[in-house]
């Protein structure tokens, strides 16, 4: 418990140090001190997450990687299915695993290198687009902690999709579509990002937003029918689920409330927030709303299947909430920011240490063991 909380605290601390300077337009001009702080926070997060040996589905992922028996890449192209990996469903992910396996990397390096990629991408994206880097990072680590320590395929696919969003905002639509297709070879559900160009240049709470709200409301009311449609979609993508699988259980209502807060603020103060907002702020707000709608739908279905879909878009909520607080409560933003930090940190403690007992599920090797200097 102390170790994880320390990781969150020092990551946010160094994020705060790295942003202590005047901005030049919309970018940071780093000096060596800022680069040092930024590098330290990356190392803290990467080593904590990348050296894990158990947590959530980590053992399953490691088992799949270790089950690859071929010594080189030639067999990858001659086999449709490779051990426990479905090459048709996750060809990009499988290909990267094949490269790692062919050069002799063990499962510890496999976990670490994937962690380096998606951690650097997520934090780069937040740093670039958030007006409050440290607050946004805290939100990501407290809301999305369980996914960042698991679900390598989904998180890696999302990281590629974030690069695609960056290209879309530069009006490079062909690159956007190509990157989303590449991301889909790591996990096909990331194809949900194809809705992004439709939402681009649309104001939040305009017709496009209400259409989304209406569709999700209808989906919740007629959830058995929604489950049938969803499972038909997932079966096409290679995941064989039944409607019964989808209708079991539901996510914790507290988690739903946590995900809904940016959307509630967005609706209540829509006139204040969007009268002069730019298209990046509008798009991120739309995607944040979409995130909360998926989490609302997960109230009625399997928390593992439906509860993970909002994770594709949660980074936008982490960026939108600090921006919303700053714009709505300009004179009181400092106090409200710290209040929000305390509340989200309290949720993190409840979620990871009270509700799910993090310490009994997480184990890791040391850096020295990774390098071969320890037993």
Low-pLDDT stretches are 22-26, 80-88
Given the helix and strand composition, which structural class is it? Answer: mainly alpha
**Termini gap:** 24 Å
Tally of strands: 4
Look at the structure and give the mean pLDDT: 84
Number of domains: 1
Rg result: 21 Å
SSE run:
HHEHHEEHHHHHHHHHHHHHHHEH
How would you characterize the largest beta sheet? 2 strands, antiparallel
Number of helices: 20
Helix content: 55-70%
Strand order of the largest sheet: 1-4
Query: What form results from the Cα inertia axes?
Result: globular
| Strand content bin | under 5%
Summarize the structure.
This protein has helices at residues 2-18, 32-50, 58-66, 74-78, 91-102, 107-129, 133-143, 145-148, 152-168, 173-184, 196-199, 207-221, 223-236, 243-246, 253-268, 270-274, 279-297, 314-328, 333-354, 367-370, and strands spanning 52-54, 81-82, 85-86, 363-364. It is mostly helical and 375 residues long. β2 (81-82) and β3 form a beta hairpin.
Task: Explain the layout of strands and helices.
Blueprint: H1 2-18, H2 32-50, E1 52-54, H3 58-66, H4 74-78, E2 81-82, E3 85-86, H5 91-102, H6 107-129, H7 133-143, H8 145-148, H9 152-168, H10 173-184, H11 196-199, H12 207-221, H13 223-236, H14 243-246, H15 253-268, H16 270-274, H17 279-297, H18 314-328, H19 333-354, E4 363-364, H20 367-370
Antiparallel strand pairs: 1-4, 2-3
Helix pairs in contact: 1-2, 1-7, 2-6, 6-9, 7-18, 7-19, 9-10, 12-17, 15-17, 15-18, 17-18, 18-19
């Amino acid at each position: 418990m102390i170790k994880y909380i320390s990781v969150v605290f020092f990551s946010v601390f160094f994020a705060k140090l790295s942003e202590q300077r005047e901005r030049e337009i919309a970018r940071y001009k780093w000096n060596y001190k800022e680069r040092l702080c930024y590098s330290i926070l990356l190392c803290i997060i990467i080593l904590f997450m990348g050296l894990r040996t158990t947590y959530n589905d980590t053992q399953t992922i490691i088992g799949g990687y270790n089950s690859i028996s071929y010594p080189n890449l030639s067999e990858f192209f001659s086999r449709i299915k490779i051990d426990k990996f479905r090459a048709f469903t996750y060809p990009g992910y499988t290909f990267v695993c094949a490269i790692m396996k062919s050069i002799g990397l063990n499962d510890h390096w496999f976990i670490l290198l994937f962690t380096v990629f998606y951690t650097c991408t997520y934090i780069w994206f937040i740093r670039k687009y958030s007006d409050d880097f440290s607050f946004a990072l805290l939100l990501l680590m407290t809301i999305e902690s369980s996914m960042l320590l698991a679900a390598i395929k989904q998180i890696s696919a999302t990281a590629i999709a974030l690069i695609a969003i960056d290209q879309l905002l530069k009006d490079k639509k062909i690159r956007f579509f190509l990157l989303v297709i590449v991301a889909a070879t790591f996990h096909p559900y990331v194809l949900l990002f194809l809705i992004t160009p439709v939402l681009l240049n649309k104001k939040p709470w305009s017709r496009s937003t209400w259409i989304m709200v209406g569709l999700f409301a209808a989906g919740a009311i007629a959830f058995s029918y929604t489950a049938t449609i969803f499972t038909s979609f997932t079966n096409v993508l290679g995941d064989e689920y039944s409607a019964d699988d989808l209708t079991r259980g539901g996510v914790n209502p507290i988690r739903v409330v946590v995900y809904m807060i940016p959307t509630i603020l967005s609706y209540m103060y829509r006139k204040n927030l969007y009268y002069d907002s730019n298209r990046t702020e509008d798009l991120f707000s739309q995607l944040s709303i979409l995130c909360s709608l998926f989490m609302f739908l997960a109230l009625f279905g399997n928390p593992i299947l439906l509860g993970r879909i909002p994770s594709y878009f949660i980074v936008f909520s982490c960026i939108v909430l600090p921006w919303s607080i700053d714009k709505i409560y300009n004179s009181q933003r400092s106090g409200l920011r710290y209040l929000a930090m305390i509340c989200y940190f309290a949720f993190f403690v409840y979620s990871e240490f009270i509700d799910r007992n993090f310490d009994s599920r997480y184990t890791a090797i040391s850096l020295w063991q990774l390098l071969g200097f320890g037993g």
